[in-house]
Design brief:
The complex is a heterodimer of chains A (400) and B (370). With 400 residues, chain A is of the alpha/beta class. Chain A is 18% helix and 27% strand. The chains are: A alpha/beta (400), B alpha/beta (370). At the A-B interface, β14, β15, β16 and β19 of A face α10, β14, β15, β16 and β17 of B.
Chain lengths: 400, 370
């Protein structure tokens, strides 16, 4: 019997995520915290294992240390395998050349030998910046049933937002006849989710052709997919109807966290039929004191809450001291919110300390809130304040 | 100095028959997300003890499930690691062991294989942080044969079987007493933690087989207080002895004191089996005061002075006070719950009123529906 895998997943996790500003100063975007306990990469990894895909290559490049540590041997996702499992693939030096990953397609091209050792029939390409629960095996069945060369997952977006996405124009049977990257006048509302399944041989062929071109940006969306379409390969759109959010910006990351709250949350993270696995912190249960208050919020283990928490997400080991108020905010692990401090409409990254009576963020007078962002390891002085919409990655001193 | 650890998971099962009916003492849930065995096991790991045997007798499925390969304690090792030592029958006697010494006779192979010089033995009826290394160091400095750990405290009101130590001014143990009647004063109560050389333990075990000795305290310690140098080691700091259901209840609630929490968990090094619970979610109607709440819960009612384990649901309008609610228990809407210990997977339907008393909590068994 030949040792092989039906499908190998390749997860693109090398992006800097520059639109997350201070959050990704020192870590790659897929390692950004989400929902109190998770990191963004937990979602594609959990989707893989829940879909029966146990071989995943994670392509890292930008600030990989925390991400590499986090993934480790893949044990939290049951991806510690003797054949298959999770592998971290970083750029490396070869005898004749050495290169950083020049684009998404180039990253996969440089690791084709990794894919080939599992002799897969199909290759699933994923990216590490989306929050969603998706059964990839259904998409793979669709790909096989349609005898496609490439299948692209797509989601319907509101027509007014369609011009922000890569749009797939399809015939009635789902066959793609045209791609439009951020069209001014979109013909359809089917947006590409950046999730592709390729029949392996076709993928190898087009990656090799692309690597020999000089006029290429080595990108799936810009180069590989269009050249496959031009060559007449069968490309299908696979419509996905669940929750899916690209968390590439501060606003979308904030919204996706808020989507976890409420009696009937838009995104249910405590779903026993589709568990999201993650590396758990070693903290005791959290504690709410006599003056502690928690409403419509998510609170992780290790927190000590003696103030008030409302419409917020608290990651592990956060301390909210007496009289402090946390409203509509996302607080990452090991943050201390000092006595009588107020935090509103903010994202506060790990290990940051807010002094007593400090004030971070503001409630909007009208319209959309402006999200304030404090980076990791910073200190806000007693009584200091940070205005709405500010992005801070160094200590804040009290003015005047 | 390298030491091997031996944990007796079930010697005090009779202390809390309610909770130990379906499990060994070591796998009794404690403190929202832990089991009693987590404390000695973590203490061992944090003291650099990497070879640990857990002695079991009966009902140990839940313990095996909990400990698993030991990876959550970093004890899944090629060299050493944690091993569960189930009872070992032989042709001569089909009975299970009945004492500490008999249990040790069963594990002579385990002791023989270990290449560590010292042995740390502990039971699962105590919750504390203790550095076994420090005990071993003192043991060596004192040129002791055996060192016993004690806590200077008043016995729990129902702790009738406590063993107390008579200690001279040099810390040497000169006598062992068994409490007959409850005395309401501070005493040197033995914690069932022993340190001794492995070779000495092996000799003791061989000798007791030859002379049919049964009881470690009576036949070995009390017999030899003069012929051996048996030293004491005083434990300072948080200490809970699970001597009864009431003591279990009070020890859990003791975690609501910030100092106790800080001492046990401050350095985040009590390990336990990791489960993938989502973070806990609070609804708009939640009111929570002075309570410890584990992950995966959905809290929509009121909780006060309570310990809530993982994946518990507290419905709207329900008031929970002074209670311990274990994993996966579901409390319906508009219930009133006071001084209850609800075991795992209990379901309490809407509008029920249940109350124990603070000196006699009402226990609801695993899986029961009310």
């Amino acid at each position: 019997m030949i040792r092989k895998k039906k499908c190998v997943a390749m997860l693109l996790a090398g992006g800097q995520g520059s639109r997350l500003y201070a959050l990704t100063n020192n870590i790659a975007k897929p390692a950004v915290s989400f929902g109190g306990k998770y990191r963004i990469i937990d979602f594609p990894l959990s989707n893989c294992i829940n879909s029966g895909i146990d071989t995943v290559g994670v392509l890292t490049q930008y600030q990989p240390l925390i991400l590499n540590d986090y993934i480790g041997n893949g044990q939290p996702w049951d991806l510690d395998r003797t054949f298959g499992g999770v592998h971290i693939l970083s750029p490396y030096q070869r005898k004749v050349s050495s290169d950083w990953y020049k684009g998404t397609a180039n990253a996969i091209y440089q690791n084709m030998h990794f894919i080939k050792q599992f002799s897969p029939d199909y290759v699933l390409i994923l990216s590490g910046d989306h929050i969603y629960k998706m059964n990839y095996s259904l998409m793979l069945n669709y790909h096989i049933l349609n005898d496609a060369d490439c299948t692209i997952a797509a989601i319907n977006v509101p027509i007014e937002e369609a011009s922000r996405f890569g749009i797939l124009n399809t015939k009635d049977n789902g066959v793609i006849y045209e791609f439009e990257e951020k069209p001014k006048q979109p013909k359809s509302t089917l947006a590409s989710m950046g999730i592709y399944i390729f029949s392996a041989e076709k993928l190898y062929k087009y990656l090799e052709e692309d690597s020999e071109k000089t006029e290429t940006s080595n990108d799936f969306g810009k180069d590989i997919l269009p050249s496959m379409l031009n060559a007449g390969e069968k490309m299908m759109a696979y419509e996905f109807n669940g929750y899916w959010k690209d968390v590439g910006t501060i606003d979308s990351l904030y919204e996706a966290n808020m989507d976890l709250l409420g009696d009937n949350p838009l995104f249910d993270i405590n779903d026993s039929s589709w568990k999201i696995q993650s590396r758990s912190p070693l903290a005791p249960p959290h504690y709410l004191g006599n003056n502690g208050k928690a409403n419509n919020s998510i609170i992780m283990s290790g927190c000590e809450v003696n103030g008030s928490v409302e419409n917020s997400v608290l990651a592990s080991d956060v301390i909210v001291e007496e009289g402090a108020v946390v409203k509509n905010s996302i607080i990452m692990s090991d943050v201390v919110i000092g006595k009588n401090a107020v935090v509103e409409y903010s994202i506060i990254d790990e290990n940051t300390i807010l002094g007593e009576n400090s004030h971070v963020g503001e409630s909007p007078k009208k319209g959309r809130p402006k999200i304030t962002l404090l980076g990791r390891n910073i200190k806000v002085d007693n009584g200091a304040s940070v205005k709405a919409g500010q992005i801070v990655d160094s200590d804040v001193v009290k003015e005047g | 100095m390298k030491a091997v650890g031996i944990i007796f998971s079930n010697i005090h099962d009779n202390n809390v028959p309610e909770l130990a009916r379906i499990r060994t003492l070591g796998s009794i849930p404690f403190g929202g997300r832990y089991r009693l065995v987590d404390f000695p096991l973590s203490n061992m790991v944090n003291s650099g003890i990497n070879t640990v045997g857990i002695i079991t007798k009966s009902n140990y499925q839940s313990l095996m499930d909990h400990v698993g390969s030991g990876k959550d304690w970093d004890l899944a090792r090629k060299d050493g690691g944690v091993i569960i030592l189930p009872p070992f029958g032989d042709v001569e006697s089909s009975n299970l062991y009945n004492s500490r010494l008999e249990a040790l006779k069963n594990i002579t192979n385990f002791l023989f294989r270990a290449d560590e010089d010292y042995v740390v033995m502990t039971d699962c009826d105590t919750v504390c942080r203790i550095d076994y290394n420090d005990i071993i160091e003192k043991h060596i400095q004192n040129h002791a044969d055996i060192t016993l750990v004690y806590k200077s405290r008043k016995p729990n009101f129902d702790e009738k079987n406590a063993t107390t130590l008579r200690i001279d001014e040099n810390g040497r143990i000169v006598g062992v007493n068994y409490m007959r009647e409850l005395e309401d004063k501070e005493m040197n109560i033995f914690s069932n933690i022993f340190v001794l050389k492995k070779s000495l333990l092996q000799n003791i075990v061989m000798d007791s087989i030859a002379h049919n000795k049964k009881h470690f305290m009576t036949d070995i310690i009390a017999e030899n207080v003069h012929s051996m140098k048996i030293m004491s080691y005083k434990h300072e700091g948080f200490y809970a002895c699970i001597s009864s259901l009431q003591a279990y209840y009070e020890s859990n609630l003791a975690l609501l004191e910030v100092e106790n929490r800080q001492e046990l968990f401050g350095d985040r090094s009590v390990f336990t089996k990791i489960r993938d619970s989502a973070p806990t979610k609070y609804g708009n109607t939640a009111v929570v005061k002075n309570s410890m709440i584990a992950d995966g819960c959905l809290i929509e009612g009121e909780v006060e002075n309570s310990i809530i384990f993982r994946n518990v649901k507290v419905g709207r309008g329900t008031v929970v006070k002074n209670s311990i609610i274990m994993q996966n228990t579901v409390l319906g809407e508009n219930c009133t719950i006071n001084c209850i210990i609800a075991d795992k997977n209990v379901t309490i339907k809407d509008r029920k009123i249940l109350s124990g008393s603070d000196n006699h909590p009402f226990y609801i068994g695993k899986g029961i529906m009310i």
